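RECORD TYPE: protein structure
NAME: alcohol dehydrogenase (NADP(+))
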Amino acid sequence: MLTVNAYAATAATDPLVPTAIERRDLGPHDVLIEIKYAGICHSDIHTARGDWGPAAYPLVPGHEIAGIVAEVGAAVTRHAVGDRVGVGCMVDSCRECDNCRQGEEQYCVPGNTLTYGSVGADGEVTQGGYSTHIVVTEDFVVTIPDGIALDVAAPLLCAGITTYSPLRHWGAGPGKQVAVVGLGGLGHMAVKIAHAMGAEVTVLSQSLRKRDDGLRLGADHYHATSDPQTFKTLTRRFDLIVNTVSAPIDVDRHLRLLALDGALVNVGAPAEPMTLNVFSLLAGRRSYAGSMIGGIRETQEMLDFCAEHGIGAEIELIDADRINEAWERVLASDVRYRFVIDAATFTER
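PREDICTED:
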């Protein structure tokens, strides 16, 4: 067992603290990764604070992991010592259900093993990327192309794939009108990726405060949802709306912005339920859907796409002792657009 430095949540209401955790010995197909950078996702906060259900404490969050392979098991063929690699939201799945066989491990029927807060194959609760090292089976480790720096690559392992997957699935591309609700950690990646796919991109945000950023990142248009005129001007405009916010929205108002056969897709996951009037769907054969991260194959595809188009996250790099401050700023929407932790700053308690 390898003992490594980490930061952990010890209760739903307490700040994270430095700690030490143990990583399992390498099995034949395992990869030991020296973590260089770990992104801070809103999901980390939701999970640690019990918004989505009880958590097992102590809990080390983090599922946006970029690092270097430090050691491999005897049977590993996909990765070698020194490789630049990443780990996202999953570290295992059943491998046998129909969804897994199709490369959609995020929809594993028995349930996949999450990077933190799940029970792994060894019977232990998984601990995530707010740490110096992690051990992951090779099939759930992806290659980070040389064209992306590791610090800006880390958020791609969640924010990148979470937005790439629905954009690809619902056919974002030339001739398509795509709207992105919210310009945060997920939203800014959606704008970059949709633009690179060739779609005409509109940001729908509460205010025009980030308008200049949105246009710089690739948006063609930017509208404030706090202005009632926005919902009149944009009626029946979009083929696809990707909702990235983790708070309730007026679903009916947004559905009315869809053209015939358009889709509103949720990737943000608010703790509160949302409702809709079914007539908002009937009038235009509209769809209301959800999308959750992406499979391992698609995650690699996304990374290759981002490298080809020069896409990385917009980040604020922080030391580990600023994690609690960063969490509060995430809750206040005070980050442009993703905090990334320098794993070299994890220290012993």
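COMMENT: The longest strand covers residues 30-39.
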